[in-house]
Amino acid sequence: MHATRGLHAGLKRAAVLLCGALLAAAALSADTRFAIRNAFAEPVAGVWQLNVIVETGLSEPALEALAEGIPLTMILDIEISGERRFLPDATVAELQQRWELAYDALSGRYVVTNINSGAQTTFATLDEAIETLSRVRNLPLIDADLLEEGRRYEVSLRASIDIGGLPGAIKVLVFWRDWSQSTDWYTWSIRP
Amino acid sequence: MTRRWLPLAIGSGVVVWVVALALLAVTTRDSQEFGRLQPWILVINAAGVIVLLALLAGRLGELIRERREQVPGSRLRTRSVALLSVLVLVPLLIVFTFSVLFLTRGIDSWFHAEVRQGLSDALGLSRAALDLRMREYLERTTEIARDLEGQHSAVLFSALDDQRRRSDADELAVVSAGGRLEAYSAAALLQGMPPAPPDEILLQVRRGERYVSLDPAANGGYVIRAAVGMGQESSLKSRRILVAVYPVPQRLADLAAAVQGAYQQYGRLSYLREPLKISFVLTLSLVLLMALLAAVYGAFFFSDRLVQPVQDLIRATRAVAKGDFDTQVPRASRDEIGYLVTSFNDMTKRLARARGEAEASRQEVENERTGLAVILARLSTGVVSLEHDLTIRVANHAAGDILGTGLRERAGETLDQVAAESTLVAQFLAVVRPHIDAGQTEWREQLSLKAESGRREIMCACTALPVEGDEPGGLVLVFDDITQLLHAQREAAWGEVARRLAHEIKNPLTPIQLSAERLRRRLLDSLGERDAEVLDRATHTIVQQVEAMKQMVNAFSDYARAPAVELASVDVNRLVSEATDLYHVQDARVHFDLQLDPGGAVIEADRGRVRQVLNNLLTNSLEALEGRPEPMVAVTTRRVPVNGQGFVELVVRDNGPGFHRELAGQMFDPYVTSKPKGTGLGLAIVRKIVEEHGGRIEAENHPQGGAQVRVWLPVDEAARGAVVPRDARKQEPRREHA
After folding, report:
1. Are residues A67 and A113 in the same domain?
2. CA B689 to chain centre
3. How many other C-beta atoms lie within 10 A of the C-beta of residue A93?
4. Could you tell me the pTM of the whole model?
5. Which of A38, B211, B356, B698 could form a disulfide with B227 if both were Cys (CB 3.0 to 4.6 A apart)?
6. Do B517 and B536 belong together in one domain?
7. ipTM of this predicted complex?
């Protein structure tokens, strides 16, 4: 009897521990969630513009790397494809936007650089910098003339964060570490 | 073609692999170079490992198979591969262990706490220097703001520009509390709209605080950004804000950038500390693994080079053991193995030569032996080689013929064993044994053996064989049947006697007869009756005895006379029929049983002499049958092949008393007779005639009683030369063995 009771108690304790561990993991994953929360495109003055909100939770290695002065690179891959009957969709346009987030130890500021344009902004806190990175506003996507009116197009979007400037060989050799984060493809359709 | 390209492919592969390995070592440290190539470099290295592993697995499998099949040389190969592998493995592992140790310790040594502290201190120092400058610029900005207070918007720009020129500022801007730009002055030519001040400046100033910050510039340097409110603090929301941007002095900027760079680099290395260690150790392990695999493969290669000549030698040795002396091993190297191979090749050449010579001499001996065997087989002289214990080693056919038993087939048995089955051999042994028991090895003796068909005179000589190596020397008995020779000698002697007797006796017989007749004629009438009767009886007896003597002398004369044989075709069956008819007429009591060959029995012979043979034989039988109940004479003729030649066998048998046992062997001698009235010349003449015709005669007692005489006569000239063996009656063709 005593043994059975002991076993039950042990099982109960194990179940509690497991639940705790699962909750902790869920909390951790909520903090480091990296996903595209919302995205839409609209034509503004003859140009389709993209607006994206990315939920940017940085992973532990990424935060460590940033603290040690290693820049992070955020890449936004955008693909527009036109729907075709009986055939695979045709890719109309592909573009990539890259930003770099770095910590400047001397000034104690976080620097966000748009690699495509070279524009640089500095922030006193990491949250501000991440907030800026998370919101892409009015990014020119494609000239409206290039899209056929009435045809259905699909816009696919994917963001990824990479710990930049590291030797590729190390990334391959120490493959089990999270060297980069990536969102799933976020796809929606537009009809000019 | 493949063989030509294979070394090139292997060489290229090795070069690519070595380059990839070197690149891997470089790229582990620095990502800037060969960035795109890195995965490929890893792939090449991994592929190298896989290729080597596959090659090694193949070789290992081959080695295991060879060991299982016990291929010669596989043990040596295994041992050499294992030894070479261990020889390579041990130092490599030692080097690897120490390298890992040094590597991890070396990497750890970069991250001493003092280094980080030093860098932090340097950074702090730089900050302190810049802080001083920042405070100074903040104060200056405050002064400018104070100067600009109350300036109307219309002149604000010129006042601002004036202030900028007087100060060190790169940019001066006046913005509203909401962030709207009211005036702006910059040292550099502005392209496009001036940038709006960051929100944090507006927020801070609106809270009534002054703002100063060190900002990293887009061009790589630093700028100091300061902002202060203009006007009364009470009307915060309507206050204007002065934002100034100052350059950091070049010298200070360079030093600060250097410190920042060093700090950042250190941070980067610190971050990569563990991954670097892992990747270095992994790279080292990869290099070690490849070196190890290459070394083991090399061990296989070198063991091949080492074992191949040994395997060739083993193969060649086996071939030589099987008798293939033409085997030559290819010489692979100029070292000791090569010397061994050369020596082996020399040895096989010499062996081949020696074998050739041995073969030639063996062939010669064989030829001689074959010749000897042929000679022995053809010899009419019997030759028997014996051990000292009388075991037969070799015997020729003639020995068997003479002794009446096939001695040749009984090689390995002793003469005693053969003697138990053969009376002739027993008699022969009885003469031979005393000599051998007495230790006599060289002797010669004439012996007389009693056979059923007659007495055989044998001349036997013995000699010792020389001792050959370990083989003890034996004895050789050489014996010859000299019955014929003795008979011929005796016949010649008797012929001479007969001729002289005929000559010496016949001459006085006629005068004796004539004288007796004359006496009788003259005195018979003149004498008295009684005297006349005596004279008549006496003269009659004289004449009668003289006549008998004449007949006897004529018989002698016939025996001695040897006229030329006149050959003609003679039908033996017919002669038999005629003769038996004649005798049947003379004595009807006798029953003649004729069994004549229905195929005919025609021979080439002298008719008169053959008839005489038949008459003598029939006369002998009839004389023997006198007074016997149910007298019977059986005459048989038949054709028999002897040595492939045609012979006619004539057998005359009676149911009389047979030959006297004491006369056995002498029945054909002249003056040997068992009859009271016989001259003893009948069978002697028969044998003489038969031998003149190239035939053979045998006389014996029939098992069922009575005498039996067998005569073989050749059918033609070709058969006349054939030897009629003593066992011709068995009708077995004689076999001669070379």
Report:
1. yes
2. 65
3. 17
4. 0.51
5. B211
6. yes
7. 0.72
